[in-house]
Amino acid sequence: MAYKDKSKAIAYNNDFIAKSYDRVNLTLSKGKKETIKAHAEAQGQSVNSFINQAIDEKIERDTLARKRKENKWSDKIEDEVLRIRKRDGGQMDLFVGTMLAIGEYGLEDDVWEYLKGHPTATFNELERFISELCPPIEIVDDDES
Questions:
Q1: Which residues contact 12 (CB under 8 A, 6 or more apart)?
Q2: What is the DSSP string of the chain?
Q3: Is the dihedral of CA 15, 21, 26, 32 positive or negative?
Q4: Torsion angle of alpha carbons 38, 24, 22, 47, nearest 10°?
Q5: Which of 11, 42, 57, 137 is most exposed by smallest CB count within 10 Å?
């Protein structure tokens, strides 16, 4: 949207940001901002993008650690499925669901053999393979009596 009055453009932009985003005031040790900025630029990212990515990756690692403890799935399978998810751009919740299904139904050996035999398998192909091994799930509509 083009504005002749620059102050209206700034006000519009600020209003949009306030409605669309949460803001966090981050306090860093002196000099750390420049270190982050230089690293982000070297990666072709903005500081904001880099910090968001770092937060997402930390949440992902913590979630995986918790799920691994709860379900005791194999590190080698997790590493390979995570590699495929990252390569294909799959979402984290799909990855966790996949790993839960593997652990819940004892599919570790089957999945490992599939991964060894299909080194270029996509995340969707792996999901299809796992769904074929899982027992059918009955969906009950609580509204129907």
A1: 1, 3
A2: ---SSHHHHHHHHHHHHHHH---------TTHHHHHHHHHHHTT--HHHHHHHHHHHHHHHHHHHHHHHHH---HHHHHHHHHHHHHHT--HHHHHHHHHHHHHTT-HHHHHHHHHH-TT--HHHHHHHHHHHSPP-----TT--
A3: negative
A4: 0
A5: 137
Q: Which two tokens stand for residue 104?
A: 């819940």
Work out the burial of residue 22: count CB atoms within 10 Å of its CB; fewer than 13 is exposed, 13-18 middle, 19 or more buried: exposed
Tokens of 41: 């630029």
Please state whether the predicted TM-score (pTM) of the whole model is above 0.70: no
The answer to whether 51 and 26 have CB atoms below 8 angstroms apart is yes
Which residue's entry shows tokens 């652990």?
103
Q: What would the mean pLDDT of 130-140 be, rounded to a whole number? A: 72
